[in-house]
Here is the input.
Amino acid sequence: MMIKQAEFLISAVKPSQYPDLGFNEVAFVGRSNVGKSSLINTLTNRRKLVKVSGTPGKTRLINFFLINGKYCFVDLPGYGYAKVSKVEKQKWGKMIEDYLIKRDNLKKVVLLLDIRHKPTQDDIQMYEWIKYYGYEIIIVATKKDKLSNNQIAKSDKVIRQTLKLDKDEKIIHFSSLKKQGKEELLEAIFKNLD
Ligand SMILES: Nc1nc2c(ncn2[C@@H]2O[C@H](COP(=O)(O)OP(=O)(O)OP(=O)(O)O)[C@@H](O)[C@H]2O)c(=O)[nH]1
Ligand SMILES: [Mg+2]
Here is the structure.
């Protein structure tokens, strides 16, 4: 499936602000700075649909995007950003939690992990959570351009072990910089999404 149309819909902090279009939804979650916003731009072939920044904690709201006029992509705030206050962290946590619990339209969750790092406790918790709530999960390892093939193979193993993945669970290796992994991810996202 090609993404021919992508437009920003709305930013929300609470459920009453979520768009009410009834379209099937795919959410993108992961640590702050992992590359969520960049990945959405890459998938939609848009350089500036979503704001990207070298400063972690850029995305502080839940951003909804309309895709091909009939699906929604949702860019969630990144978790685990060290430089914010405890209160702020709790606020973000609750925002993400509220969304994941209360969103009927949500069909799939793309969990992003930085290919260079061992998944954190937050990552493991997020993975467990998504499974617990019964959403289909797509695991993506981002920034693959930063590692050699040899290093990628090693990291892949660490991620699999840390999350205790089954053999049949795939990790899609992705680079927004080099536009790698795009077709594979699009296929996983749109498979049986209707
Ligand atoms: N080398 C490389 N850098 C990347 C890639 N994807 C993202 N980045 C960089 O990583 C930084 C964070 O990217 P974002 O897309 O803003 O990350 P995010 O997950 O949306 O971050 P928050 O909004 O803070 O949660 C930026 O400096 C990007 O340019 C990639 O595939 N390769
Ligand atoms: Mg972002």
